[in-house]
Design goal:
single chain; nine-stranded mixed sheet; alpha/beta; 16 strands; globular; three-stranded mixed sheet
Length: 574
């Protein structure tokens, strides 16, 4: 009840209320105020008295309605939020808390504006003509071709003592001749001429897939658009938080190493060991030019570097033998194998001024000169990208089942990735895909020329590894086939036995340590018997023949002599 209405109402004892109007005090008993005017003013006051509370009541009802609507909207939002979380939880039961938090809150970041910029591609520049002449001292036509009449030999006969894959003969030209065959200009990049990369200071997740801030969380729309080859393209390719990879972008590298990595090189060899997972293998059989012109880079994390220092393998120049050690801090993933995919697939971003690169996994030992490898698998084939096919499997579906059986990754994530590819049109490998010889690579060696189309291929391959599982064999054929459908480009998938000709595969560190431990345990559990000779007897110890198992025949010396003394024209191989 307002103060104005109190001034109009009479009290219960009937006392007169006085009203002040225009500075004059009036009462109901005043004779000069007519009855009609009194009734009119009173009714107007009462109308105002009733109108104001009605407005107030209407506003109250309106606020309550809005509150009810807001409550229902909040309830619907929370219900959808719970359903999304439940779906994500059922899709992958092994997400850690960080991944779960990102997957659960992607819709919040989708409401915020994104500030995305573009980083230019650093194309490798050819060195001055005099520098190139120092390497290519002779024309390749001046050399005879030692591999012109080389024929691939038949497979060797089976050996029960050696099961599994093995190497096969490969014809390499001499190192000097291989250097002379190096192309003087870069290969043509079909379709794509200029490639740039997305840069976002604070990457935001807009869809409920895994991905990472390091990869920039590309949406499905952006992913699909990246397979549409154009003359100029901008794609996600890791390192999205900066335009200089390794400089506060995640996968951080010291400034001195970055400066070294930005120098021009015709050829580099690179590898990586994260989580102290492998033992560094030293290359062999390299020539003088290779030692002077081809740097070897090994990327390691802090755990691996500490192990190298503790074992006194790392010298004062940050080298272990021929390898220059590149320390990586602030690695983007908790999985060491996934961190290894960064240099493996994104070497063109880490080395912007390199023409050719050879990637080998940390467990491999290179035993052929890099120039000979490049000549055999790139230059001789007019190829820009080479990788060996898997020695046994050719089909992605079989590879997925083999990964699940071996526990390479959780089954839910593998099934999700394969189902996604099936919906996109992935089919089992068959002869209908020829001349494509396989859908499954043995991805431990990658031989590459750094041109826009190959850089795009490894960018998109990395994006699949970042979005789905770290098993890059599962995503290789999807990326390759999508690019081949747009432009005239192919991958040289050579035989795995040829790969085994130029690298030796060692065991991972954990297997080496396990084998060493088992050897020690067996030596302590079953020590060799000590021979004790009886001093009282001068007779030599009597050797007892070994016990024959059931079904074994007694040796017959006469029979052996008869076989050995066969006719002159016969021969026996033992």
């Amino acid at each position: 009840m307002t103060g104005w209405s109190l001034g109009l109402r009479t009290v219960s004892d009937g006392s007169l209320q006085q009203l002040t109007q225009n500075g004059v005090l009036y009462s109901h008993s005043n004779s000069f105020v007519s009855r009609k005017g009194s009734k009119t003013s009173l009714s107007s006051y009462r109308e105002k008295e009733m109108f104001l509370p009605s407005i107030f009541r209407f506003l109250v009802r309106k606020q309550v309605g809005m509150l009810i609507l807001a409550a229902f909207a909040l309830l619907a939002f929370l219900t959808a939020f719970w359903m999304v979380n439940k779906e994500d939880a059922s899709r992958s039961s092994e997400l850690d808390f960080k991944e779960w938090f990102e997957n659960s809150t992607y819709h919040l970041s989708a409401l915020l504006p994104r500030k995305v910029m573009v980083c230019d591609e650093h194309n490798a520049q050819l060195p001055p003509p005099h520098a190139l002449a120092m390497i290519q001292t002779k024309d390749s036509s001046a050399f005879p071709d030692p591999c012109r009449n080389f024929a691939f030999p038949p497979p060797p006969p089976g050996d029960r003592r050696r099961i599994g894959p093995r190497s096969c003969p490969v014809c390499y030209v001499p190192v000097e001749q291989a250097i002379a065959r190096m192309p003087r200009v870069p290969s043509v990049s079909p379709g794509l001429q200029h490639l740039t990369y997305f840069h976002e200071q604070i990457p935001m997740k807009t869809e409920p897939h895994r991905g990472s801030a390091f990869g920039g969380y590309p949406s499905l729309v952006e992913r699909n658009a990246s397979f549409d080859i154009k003359e100029s393209m901008t794609v996600h390719c890791g390192f999205v938080q900066g335009c200089r990879p390794g400089d506060r972008t995640g996968f951080d590298i010291d400034a001195a190493d970055l400066k070294e990595m930005e120098q021009f090189h015709d050829v580099i060899v690179a590898s990586a060991i994260f989580g102290n997972y492998d033992v560094i293998q030293q290359p062999k059989n390299w020539g003088k030019t290779t030692r002077e012109k081809v740097p070897f880079y090994m990327f390691v994390d802090e755990e691996t570097e500490a192990s190298l220092k503790n074992s006194s393998l790392l010298d004062s120049r940050n080298r272990v033998g021929l390898w220059r050690i590149i320390l990586v801090r602030n690695v983007p993933y908790s999985d060491a194998r996934r961190n290894g995919k960064v240099p493996k697939l994104l070497l063109h971003r880490l080395f912007p001024n390199v023409r050719y690169s050879i990637w080998i996994d940390g467990k491999l030992q290179l035993i052929v000169d890099p120039y000979q490898i490049l000549e055999r698998f790139l230059w001789r084939q007019n190829a820009t990208f080479a990788i060996s096919r898997h020695y046994r499997r050719f089909d992605v579906f079989e590879e997925a089942e083999a990964n699940k059986a071996a526990g390479k990754y959780d089954n839910v994530s593998i099934d999700h990735q394969i189902d996604f590819y099936k919906k996109e049109g992935l089919t089992a490998y068959s002869e209908a895909k020829l001349p494509i010889t396989s859908d499954v690579p043995e991805g431990c060696v990658i031989i590459k020329e750094h041109i826009p189309i190959t850089n795009l291929f490894t960018c998109l391959w990395f994006n699949e590894v970042d979005r789905f599982t770290s098993r890059d064999q599962l995503s290789f054929s999807t990326v390759r086939d999508k690019l081949m459908a747009k432009v005239s480009w192919n991958v040289n998938m050579f035989l795995d036995c040829e790969r085994r000709n130029f690298v030796i595969q060692a065991y991972h560190r954990d297997l080496l340590e396990q084998r060493a431990h088992m050897t020690v345990v067996r030596s302590h559990a079953h020590p060799p018997p000590a021979f004790v000779r009886d001093s009282s007897s001068s007779k030599p110890p009597v050797r007892r023949p070994p016990k024959r198992g059931k079904g074994e025949r007694k040796s017959n010396s006469r029979r052996h002599r008869k076989v050995g003394s066969g006719s002159k024209g016969s021969s026996t191989t033992f």
